[in-house]
Amino acid sequence: MPELPEVQTTVNGLNATVRGKKIVDVWTDYKSTHKMHRGSVKEAKFYKEFCQKVTGQKIIKAERRAKNILIHLSGGHTILVHMKMTGHFVYDRPEYPHVRFSLKLDNGKTLALSDMRRFAKITVIDTKNLDTSLHLGNIGPEPLETSFTYPKFKERLLTKPKGKIKTVLMDPSVVAGIGNIYSDEILWRACVHPVSTVNKIPEKNLKLMFTAMKETLNKGIDFGGDSMSDYRNIKGERGDFQNHHEAYRRTNQKCSRDKGIIKRLVVGSRSAHFCPVHQKLFQ
Hints:
The chain is of the alpha+beta class. It folds into two domains: 4-132, Alpha-Beta Barrel (N-terminal domain of MutM-like DNA repair proteins); 150-274, Orthogonal Bundle (Helicase, Ruva Protein, domain 3), CATH 1.10.8. 24% of the residues lie in helices and 21% in strands. The chain has six helices and ten strands. It has helices at residues 4-17, 44-54, 150-157, 165-169, 180-190, 203-222; strands at 23-28, 59-65, 68-73, 77-82, 87-91, 99-105, 110-115, 121-126, 263-267, 270-274. The strands form three sheets. Strands 1-6-7-5 form a four-stranded antiparallel beta sheet, covered by helices on one side. It has a four-stranded antiparallel beta sheet with strand order 2-3-4-8, with helices on one face. It has a two-stranded antiparallel ribbon with strand order 9-10. The radius of gyration is 20 Å and the shape is elongated. The chain starts with a helix and ends in a 9-residue tail after the last strand.
């Protein structure tokens, strides 16, 4: 699933390609009657409302909130997209595979969402209500904001004092945008075992984790995201962060720090990859 760096890379691509363009038509082949899709383009009734609200509107800019893409429109509405497991936007790529949703623009080109497994969420919200919407209302602070300091980071983690650190880092109500890939990489750099109990982790390692979080997420953006799975940028190109993993999906490979062997275990329902030599277990 695209995490903060992949979503930010997409947002940067949207601002470079479709900012200032007007939406002239909407198309989708998403279809669902399941109640979990109410209020999204997958629901036929809402799709009509969606088209009415976005057609004819100009794209003001795109932003990111956690793992959500926000496309702000001139009419006071915002298209919210969560790309989920296999989704990614492409611009001006005719015949691109697995396209489920597209916006035709006034320059004759198309912004399309490719989504092989059809899990993506697309809706439209009054821009003034974004922060209190059910989609964004319970999301924690953004880890790359300059105002997100170490004391605030520690405070957020300690809202789940008995939790396993891997799970807590991935909890969007604690910190926004961190998922399976980047949590593994952050903990590897901070020398913390993924099942360590939050309130047992020493101050030294918490500070290492804070620095590692900022550096790792920025590194992910610098490398254009991680394309080990389905993620592609707005041009349909692969990112490069998967070529710089230290822990994620490196099971049975040597650790580059101490020559330990990377191990895998399941934390909750998610996999965790770690070095048992330098990543200490705090319980």
